[in-house]
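Notebook B, p. 112. Complex prediction, attempt 2.
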Amino acid sequence: MPQNIDGKAISAQIKEELKEKVADLKISRGISICLAVIQVGSDPASSVYVGNKKKACAYIGIDSRSYELPEETTQEELLQLIDKLNNEEEVNGILVQLPLPAQIDEDVVIRAIDPRKDVDGFHPQSVGALCIGQPGFVSCTPAGIIQLLKRSGIEIAGRECVIIGRSNIVGKPMALLILRENATVTIAHSRTENLREVTRRADILIVATGKPKMITREYVKEGAVVIDVGIHRNEAGKLCGDVDYEDVAPVCSAITPVPGGVGPMTIAMLMNNCVEAGIAGR
Ligand code: GUN
């Protein structure tokens, strides 16, 4: 069987490291860190994500402030709140949970967040900094995947990496990050011709298609490392990824499970960004 890339254990380890760091910052430098979390409306999935983020903050020793705004909140009202939080010195990170209701333009909201507090790494300035190799916040899921690979002892430099998916949150920043680690990178997507031929070149295959169990062993080179970003619930209520795990696991050298692979890493990296924001803010 392949190596199990254990996101649950690795994220727990990162959270322990951050907890120690946060305690040390408090004691030795009097620094406390605060994340403001804004949710507009009450989408049940968003409420779960926001709840998990607040729980992680509490565990690590980061203060969290919660802003639960009604579904009918106007863009102007949300922008006013962001402006207020941008100007509050004790707030280090601002997170606006996505998606937002239809009357609010996500791009405008993301751009309104002070890049120094952009712990999601979604601001164009953060993305631009990543693109040209300058310091800035990095989108949490791709940053988490790099940690998964490094902490599992998987070599990145010089290897062929194929990413399926070109979203602003995962695919594009993933390509930039893994390029920074000196991989040779291909981004494939729904319009890619001969997808199987492309994905079979990959030493490291990162899958963010959004389609349950789409990737079967025909897409995977023998001995590849497979990272599954997807998470779906099937009719029976069971979680699965974009990769058909049972079919692919026997042919690869390492694979992330769903759940317990990429998922837990996103929050761990958000916490890491909050700590960095707290340190940079002094
Ligand atoms: N909605 C789904 N994932 C995310 C995320 O990583 N950040 C934010 N702000 N909203 C999300």
